[in-house]
Amino acid sequence: MFDDTKPIFLQLAERVADDILRGRYQEGEQVPSTNELSAHLRINPATAGKALGLLVDDGILVKRRGIGMFVADGALARIRAERQGGFIDTYLRPLLAEAQALGLDTNDLIRLIRDANDSTAMSDSADMSDNRETATP
Question: Is the same domain home to 71 and 108?
């Protein structure tokens, strides 16, 4: 559920943003209330409120007084832009540094990424095929 790496309200805010990014909540759609989140996740309502408030401050959610919280117009684009910046810093820069240390050039990296992607796609396809064979009608 939650871990000790960072405050719960930050993890919850990230979880709601993940849900928006993955299409669980569309722009203009209502998200669960502070009370719903706190009851479902068994956390303090103040913690849930702080998470939603953070998303309001970031322009991801909008508060409609007396109605609830809704996904803001443009929220998906904001989340993607923020995550892409983080992706570069967290994954690509270290990858490029390691590739350089290993003597890999851009073409080598592209080939490795394609190979990894192809093997993942084949594995996913095999998993789906296995599930179909064992499924009962």
Answer: no
Task: Return the SS3 of 30.
Answer: strand
Q: In angstroms, rounded to a whole number, what is the distance separating the alpha carbons of residues 23 and 44?
A: 26
Q: What is the pLDDT of residues 91-106, one digit of tens each?
A: 999 999 999 999 999 9
79: nearest Cα among 55, 47, 51, 53: 55
Global pTM value: 0.73
**Can you give the CATH number for the domain in which 48 is found?**
1.10.10.10
| Tokens, residue 99 | 């590739």
The angle at the Cα of 11, spanning 58 to 68, to the nearest 5 degrees, equals 55
Residue ranges making up the domain that contains 34: 8-75
Please indicate, yes or no, if residue 91 is contained in any of the structural domains.
yes
Bridge-partner residues for 28, per DSSP?
A: none
